[in-house]
Write a structure and sequence with these properties.
With about 325 residues, this protein is mainly alpha-helical. Helix content is about 75%, strand content about 0%. The protein is built from 14 helices and 2 strands. It has a two-stranded antiparallel ribbon with strand order 1-2. A hairpin with a 2-residue loop joins strand 1 and strand 2. The longest helix has 28 residues. About 45% of the residues are buried.
Length: about 325
Amino acid sequence: MTKSVSRNRVLDFAMNNAVWILLVIAVVVMGLFQPSFFSIGILSNILVQATVLGLLSISISMIILLGDINLATVGTAGFSALSGVLLLQAGVPTVIAIVVILAVGSLIGLINGLIVTKLRANALITTLAVNMVLQGALVAITGGASVTNLPQSFKAISQGNIGGFPTLPIVLIVAFIAFHFIWERTAFGRSLFAVGGNARGAYIAGIDVDKVKIGAYVVSGLLSGIAGWLLAGYMGAVTASFGTTYEMQVIAAAVIGGVSLTGGRGSMLGVLAGTLLLTVIQVGLSILGIQSTLITLAGGLMIFAAVVIDALRNLYNSRS
């Protein structure tokens, strides 16, 4: 009996912390193959690389938690960033350009939310179409060329540091702490879980389901705008393929981190772990000199693993 209880506890711990366990294993394995992986420079670079992915992962997690999907996060990031950068080149002050980026991202999120809730459109098809429109508009406006020569004031946070430590990881940590609080301690956060778990039940309980969903899409768009601004500042440009490498990774990071595709379950700590795991693998394989095609293959395997982990987690929870 005691052995059975202990076994169940171990299994519970493993299922609830699978992504953190995988992260530790990944870091140890990379370090064994390349000892310099443990250097402060590489570890801080991992955090820098994880910042944009982390923000986009939080963005899409807001919607997955509802049982929906938002495939327009990267398109929103790119188009929002382009809007601000074009204003910069027209002589508009940096602060106003950044505000416009955030406003455009929020507006796109609002449009997505209104279409999904008021027109009862399918979230996957809606956001996929919006993403294609936004990415197509970016290419059309830029003519396929990169928009460069961004002022230093625009790149200050993305390329800056505090006491020799990069600023971007600080943004990442603040974002995850803020949304952990929102999810766990606010009425809006509790409403997200309620709607994702049982929308009909949430409506009967007095929750304005449409309002919650629209709010989630607006916040998702805002986060995508912030990610776009920081990525543009880090790269020093907005390119025709801006952010496209993140398109599937954001879903994988969220799902591997425990945000259920069926909605109603997830945590910011899990999303953080999923973000770090994917980044460690991507950066680690590059450091080990693995060719880019195999890194892409590894990314695809991680997305497949995300689906399998989510299915196993749901199956285990249904039996426990």
